Structure formats: C-alpha cells, structure tokens
C-alpha cells in the first residue's frame, strides 16, 4: 500500500518505520528536519510539505501533538489533496469534539476517516505492539485496520467518530487515578511498618490489585522492571498524563459527568508537573507522597 505519514516524532517515527518493515511504500512529512532525516534512514520517502506527501496514496496516517494541529493539517493539507476515497487515520491523542468535527468534514468530502489513538508508549511504537482504539464507521474501521495491524498488537473498534478518543481518555483517567491510589497505598504501607515487597505480595493477589501495581509498580525493585527501576526515566511522561487528564476533564464537562477523582488526579499531576517533573515517568508521583 502507499501510505502518507505526517508527524514523525517520538511515536510516529517508530510507527512509520514499522509500516516500511511491513512492505508499504511510506511517504513521510514532519516540520522537523531531524525527524525527516531519521524517517529517511528508516526507508521512508520524505517530502517538503503535507500536500505533496498525500498525493497518490491509499491511506494517510498522522501522529501529531494536539487537536488544533490535527484540524489544521487535515482541513488545509489532506482533505481535498489526498486522492478521493483515501482512508484517513489520525492516531494522535486529541479532544473528542475536534476528532468528531474533523471526521465529519472528511466524511462530507467523501473520505473514510477514523480517530485511532493508541495505548502504549514509545517502546510499543518502536516494537509495533501498540493497541489502537478506533472511532469511525464499520467500513472506515475495516479499511484502517489493514494499516493499523502492521503497527500494533490489537486494533479495537470503539464506535462512531470520536469513540476512539473517548475510550482513550476514559482509560487514561482511570490509569491516573489508580496510579495515585497505588502510590498512596505503598507510602502508607511503608509508614505503617510493612516491607514494600511484602505489601506487593499480598495486595497483588488481593482486591487492591490493579495494573499500576502488578505491571507498572512505582516502587523500585518491586514487581516487574518498570521506569521506577530506572530513576523514573522513560515510560509515560508526567506531561503526557496531564495532557490526557485535561482532555478527560474537558470531555467530562461537555458530557456533564461529575468525575471528582479524575479532577483530583488532574490537580495532583498539575502540581507535580509545575514542580519541574514534566519529563519524569508518571509513576514518580510516589516520590511526592
Ligand atoms: P512528538 O512531539 O515527539 O511528535 C510530534 C511530531 O509532530 C513532531 O516531530 C513535530 O515536529 C510534528 N509536527 C508538529 N506539527 C506538525 C505539522 N503541522 N506538520 C507536520 N508535523 C508536525 O510527540 P509524540 O510523543 O510522538 O506524541 C504524538 C502524539 O501521540 C500525541 O498526541 C501524544 O499525546 C500521543 N501519545 C504519545 C505517547 C508517548 O508515550 N509519547 C503515548 C501515547 C500517545
């Protein structure tokens, strides 16, 4: 397949490389010269702007920083420039409202479009083991799946346009909440005189068990290898968790849902980010407790 890839940063760079490995012809564009040079090394053909990149392709994939940029790139440079019938796939994490709006503009212009945000960080993007949560029509999903399966381990249809973003922010709001809860439990266990490993051995097979404990333990030396064992470097940055919690709170306000734990998690990560911890893994929140 001929695929245009726009946004070759930490995530997009590895994803585009995996499309090349799967045998696709990848036409790539990014505003950054460094990102373009790396994409070229990985076998992508690079272009000077997005409009040229999307000429003569079967699919367009994007991995961009935010909703404003996604809207601008798709409405100015992709829709009306990519061949009629091209399937459009935005993998960025953005707000539900913008995802729906851009999906509607694309659909009115005769394109199949999906929002397909990911679970999994840079390591999963490089390894081709991302999980994609996809919003769009059944037909758009089937077409997008053919491309997404070469970059991930799971491609799940969440519902209509915007449903992928809705699933992503609901999931990440829960992740933020249970990471803070896990950190509080470990901090309290220690203050009460329990050894962290002993508490892990008990709680990981009891009703307090959750992903933040058994797959991403915030305590160094306990559970599987995690960013905690590496000085909280790598993994999922606090700034990105905060971005997702902000998107979740925007969606909660629009939908009229009282997500008080989500709101508190956002406040806690906001303070942690402002204290100079933006680039640390989000499990480093335990160091504040
Ligand atoms: P990044 O900043 O490393 O990459 C974004 C890239 O987009 C940059 O290379 C930038 O130059 C490029 N870009 C910006 N505006 C552009 C434009 N108008 N045209 C072309 N290129 C443009 O960010 P990232 O970490 O790769 O994240 C990308 C998306 O993936 C974000 O929406 C993020 O929330 C989401 N995400 C990231 C992670 C993670 O662990 N990094 C995990 C899950 C989801």
Describe the structure.
This protein has 289 residues and is α/β, with parallel strands linked by helices. The protein folds into two domains: 159 residues, Rossmann fold (3-Layer(aba) Sandwich), CATH 3.40.50.720; 123 residues, N-(1-d-carboxylethyl)-l-norvaline Dehydrogenase, domain 2 (Orthogonal Bundle). It contains twelve helices and nine strands. A six-stranded parallel β-sheet has the order 3-2-1-4-5-6, sandwiched between helices. Helix 4 runs parallel beside helix 5. The chain is globular, with a radius of gyration of 20 Å. It starts with a strand and ends in a 12-residue tail after the last helix. The site of nicotinamide-adenine-dinucleotide has 26 residues, from helix 4 and helix 11.
Q: In terms of topology, how is this protein built?
A:
Elements: E1 2-6, H1 12-21, E2 25-29, H2 33-41, E3 45-46, H3 50-53, E4 59-62, H4 67-78, E5 87-90, H5 96-108, E6 112-115, E7 118-119, H6 122-127, E8 130-135, H7 138-148, E9 152-159, H8 163-191, H9 196-203, H10 211-214, H11 238-255, H12 260-277
Parallel strand pairs: 1-2, 1-4, 2-3, 4-5, 5-6, 8-9
Antiparallel strand pairs: 7-8
């Amino acid at each position: 397949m001929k695929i245009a890839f726009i946004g070759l940063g930490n995530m997009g760079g590895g994803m585009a490389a995996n499309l090349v490995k799967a045998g696709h012809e990848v036409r790539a564009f990014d505003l950054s010269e460094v990102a373009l040079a790396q994409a070229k090394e990985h076998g992508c053909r690079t272009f000077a702007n997005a409009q040229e990149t999307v000429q003569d392709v079967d699919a367009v994939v994007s991995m961009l920083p935010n909703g404003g940029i996604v809207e601008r790139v798709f409405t100015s440079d992709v829709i009306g420039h990519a061949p009629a019938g091209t399937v459009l796939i935005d993998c960025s994490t953005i707000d539900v409202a913008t995802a729906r709006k851009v999906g509607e503009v694309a659909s009115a212009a005769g394109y199949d479009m999906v929002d397909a945000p990911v679970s999994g960080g840079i390591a999963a993007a490089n390894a081709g083991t991302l999980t994609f949560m996809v919003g769009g029509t059944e037909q758009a999903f089937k077409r997008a799946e053919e491309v997404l399966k070469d970059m991930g381990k799971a491609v799940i249809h969440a519902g209509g346009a915007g449903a992928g973003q809705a699933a992503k922010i609901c999931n990440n709001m829960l992740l933020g909440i249970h990471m803070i809860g896990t950190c509080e439990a470990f901090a309290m266990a220690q203050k009460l005189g329990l050894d962290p490993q002993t508490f892990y051995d008990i709680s990981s097979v009891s009703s307090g068990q959750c992903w933040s404990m058994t797959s991403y333990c915030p305590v160094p030396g306990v559970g599987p290898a995690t960013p905690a064992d590496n000085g909280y470097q790598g993994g999922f940055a606090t700034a990105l968790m905060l971005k997702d919690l902000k998107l979740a709170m925007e969606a909660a306000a629009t939908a009229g849902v009282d997500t008080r734990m989500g709101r508190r998690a956002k406040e806690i990560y906001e303070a942690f980010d402002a204290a100079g911890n933006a680039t640390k893994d989000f499990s480093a929140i335990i160091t504040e407790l």
